[in-house]
Design goal:
Layout lengths: L2 H9 L4 E2 L10 E3 L12 H6 L4 E4 L10 E3 L3 H16 L3 E5 L4 H12 L5 E3 L9 H7 L7 E5 L7 H9 L3 E4 L7 H4 L2 H8 L1 H6 L5 E5 L3 H6 L4 E6 L5 E7 L3 E6 L2 E8 L4 H13 L4 H10 L8 E5 L2 E6 L5 H12 L5 E6 L8 H14 L4 E5 L1 H4 L8 E4 L2 H7 L8 E6 L8 H5 L1
Parallel strand pairs: 1-2, 2-3, 3-4, 5-7, 5-8, 6-7, 8-9, 9-10, 10-11, 15-19, 16-17, 16-19, 17-18
Antiparallel strand pairs: 11-12, 12-13, 14-15
Helix pairs in contact: 1-3, 3-5, 4-11, 4-12, 11-12, 13-14
């Protein structure tokens, strides 16, 4: 079936779905395959549950008129998304980066939705499946689309840009994330810059943090809209970051509910993009001030005498260092519980030792390292302890000693350190 025909059928459906457990009446079901599952096997079940159409790529399962046979389900999903993007012909803002992507995306969406009907990436559905699903969640009411793009190897951002065809782009930063897949920090810069390589030849606009020398250098021949210092298109300054980030913009003081100076650039990007799209200043202020972090990202949780900074969604050497430097500035007794950082390849041993050395040096009262990588490090301070796994920590650490203190919890997603909150 041609994509044009598939698109007509898609327009008659309520939404796109890839999980039969979440089917709603009128959905179009795409029978994706994975290492341990074959969605083709569930096509008939999807129809029985109310799906209007199911898309399969194995002829044995195309046994009714509302089950559509294509050559490759995933490729059809991606091509349909691109066709739909062209059909809508609306401005698309794409963003990627090593740290802060999701928070920045949520802030941009909060600001722009004060003036426009927006559709943004849900959660962190930012890969080769999530990006098409986001595009296909847009309809003719959508005025601006906001697409988050994640990557852990070369050519992935290029591939996602070819699907989404963004008109605007922003890279939050270039940090030590996914070093194993990208091949070191230079590989990270090259991989993330694929967004620039897509936008610049097409004369599209790139939002640039003027305080980031890599961004400035990489976009010096591009059409840009910059923010940050006084030489930028829009000046935004950091007033304070203790305990929450406070910024100044157009003589307005914006008091966010986000902790850490590292969140300032995320907030500034949202302010600048709001300014570019002529969102009223007071609405920009309201949007930023009302945004509350969730999903284990810089979340503040108060539990009796304990203030918890839960930043356990993910971690890499860059974000871990930023979190620790910010945490040191907190008042009172400070306890850090840090979990392993994943996907560092040959740099894992060095980067984990660097974090141990930094944490041990900082003015933090107690440090707990959890995970196989941290367990291999050399810890030379009495205020630190290490555990090979979360279960070992939970079994051998007396949680009752954590009281009247501020607690930082940070680690890679695979460590699931939000379990510490439940253990408390």
């Amino acid at each position: 079936m041609k994509i044009e025909q598939l698109h007509k059928l898609y327009l008659s459906c309520n939404s796109v779905n890839t999980d039969t457990r979440k089917i709603n009446a009128g959905d179009m079901f795409f029978a994706l395959k994975g290492e341990n599952f074959n969605g083709n096997q569930y096509a008939e079940q999807a129809i029985e549950k109310g799906a209007k159409y199911a898309v399969v790529d194995e002829a044995d399962f195309a046994n009714s008129t509302n089950i559509i046979l294509v050559d490759n389900v995933l490729e059809s999903l991606q091509k349909l998304a691109t066709f739909h993007r062209d059909y809508l012909n609306i401005p698309i803002i794409a963003l990627t980066g090593s740290n802060g992507k999701t928070t920045t995306k949520e802030l941009i969406n909060a600001v722009l939705s004060k003036k426009f009907k927006t559709t943004a990436t849900a959660g962190n559905l930012n890969n080769h499946i999530g990006v098409p699903l986001t595009l296909l969640s847009m309809n003719q009411d959508t005025e601006i689309g906001i697409i988050e793009m994640g990557a852990n190897h070369q050519k992935e951002i290029e591939f996602l840009c070819n699907i989404a065809k963004p008109d605007y782009g922003y890279i939050t930063n270039f940090g030590k994330a996914h070093l194993e897949g990208f091949g070191g920090i230079e590989g990270v810069i090259k991989g993330k810059s694929e967004m620039y390589n897509h936008l610049i030849p097409r004369g599209k606009t790139i939002f640039v943090n003027a305080n980031d020398s890599i961004q400035v250098e990489k976009t010096k021949h591009a059409q840009t809209y910059s923010f940050g210092n006084t030489n930028s298109d829009v000046t935004i300054s950091l007033i304070d970051a203790q305990p929450y980030v406070k910024s100044k913009y157009n003589n307005l003081v914006i008091e966010s509910q986000l902790i850490g100076a590292y969140n300032f650039s995320n907030i500034a990007a949202a302010i600048a993009i709001g300014n570019y799209f002529k969102v009223d200043d007071t609405n920009i202020k309201t949007a930023i001030e009302n945004y509350i972090a969730s999903n284990n990202r810089s979340q503040i949780i108060k539990k009796e005498s304990i203030k918890i900074i839960l930043d356990a969604y993910n971690a890499n050497p860059t974000s871990m260092k930023a979190a620790l430097l910010n945490f040191e500035k907190q008042a009172g007794t400070k306890i850090a519980i840090l979990g392993d950082m994943f996907e560092l390849g040959g740099e894992a041993e060095t980067e984990h030792q660097n974090i141990v050395n930094l944490a041990s040096y900082l003015n933090i009262n107690q440090i707990i390292f959890i995970g196989e990588n941290f367990f291999k490090t050399s810890v030379n301070t009495t205020k630190a302890s290490k555990f090979k796994s979360f279960d070992t920590f939970k079994t051998n650490f007396d949680m009752s000693q954590i009281k009247n203190s501020t607690l930082l919890i940070k680690g890679s997603r695979g460590m699931a350190l939000e379990r510490v909150v439940h253990a408390l």
